[in-house]
DNA sequence: ATCTGTTCTTATCTTTTGTTATCGTTTTGG
DNA sequence: CCAAAACGATAACAAAAGATAAGAACAGAT
């Protein structure tokens, strides 16, 4: 049974390796703090208003991150397989999370506490470097997201999604979540689809 | 004459100190690479399409960062006194910058090459930590910017600006730049102002 | 298999925003 | 100091998006 934990840990290390090559010692600083959680569809991993303290790594499943305002939800991000998942901003700032993260399917995650990661930052240069590179990675993603919202029309944003890497993955999420991700209403997105598909 | 350079360097060190306390040795790794540049109003500090390699620190002046698309410009950020200024994304990714940065007034900056900073990252733990904290700082700012664009109406975004820290500084920049910063046209922003001021 | 709730489309109506053009006013450069 | 350019407000019209509601297709649960 612990096999699955070890295998998952290996996957996470592989993922982190894309950012930085950690020594075995550095890696072993994190490994004992890993555990696996299972979530049912529609279960929350992070709840708005609570200070987030867990970092996850998606082993299986789909998640959405969203803001709520006057009962209306706006999706800001989708998380898929083999991705780090967290209300990272809340972890960093230690302020209550403005967003919730919800499983859109039954899901499995490897998780560990952010305080552990933070301690590793100051303890090991490899982890400190990972912290920088990961933050830079998120930064670039956010900049592109912001630029899209500012520069592209709703139709262009939809088309960009269709051409993106996550094209096929997004087919598994309800369209009204995608609509709010694009900053428009589901009705408006339906019109856009209608306008485009005929081609 | 070198006095001004030293004084500027002290200001930069003070600014960086908000992120991390550098040892004298760490600081001296950067100091020799600092220089001062003067820009005239409307002069570009970073040009779209060129790989940026300079980090600046605004000593005096106002700057705007903007995207261009089919001749239309959208401002993504304003930079003021005592702020680090760069097409950081371009520096990090070593890809041509999608944005330009333009002085909106005669300006003075302290500058240094990004490659120097990058070398300091791997050489000193203090600098590595600064790299992480700075990236995290930018990340949080971008997340808030994105959330604003996704969650707030144009009018709410304008009101948020009026209540922001940079309230007074923004009075010195032409309104049509602010309009594109909010993701709307100058005409639309004029309507919003009209709608609001009567109160 | 049926029932219930969700999801998506479509239609209608309203509101908001963009577009274009005009007109004072201010700023800037020669 | 003057002419030209830039700036901001406003009006009129067109285009796009939001709100709401109705209905069809689909999935999940009992």
UniProtKB/TrEMBL annotation, chains A, B:
InterPro entries: cNMP-bd_dom, cNMP-bd_dom_sf, RmlC-like_jellyroll. SUPFAM superfamilies: cAMP-binding domain-like. GO terms for molecular function: kinase activity. Keywords: Kinase, Transferase. Residues 37-124 form the Cyclic nucleotide-binding domain. Gene3D superfamilies: Jelly Rolls (2.60.120.10). CDD domains: CAP_ED (cd00038). It holds the Pfam family cNMP_binding. This is cAMP-binding domain of CRP or a regulatory subunit of cAMP-dependent protein kinases.
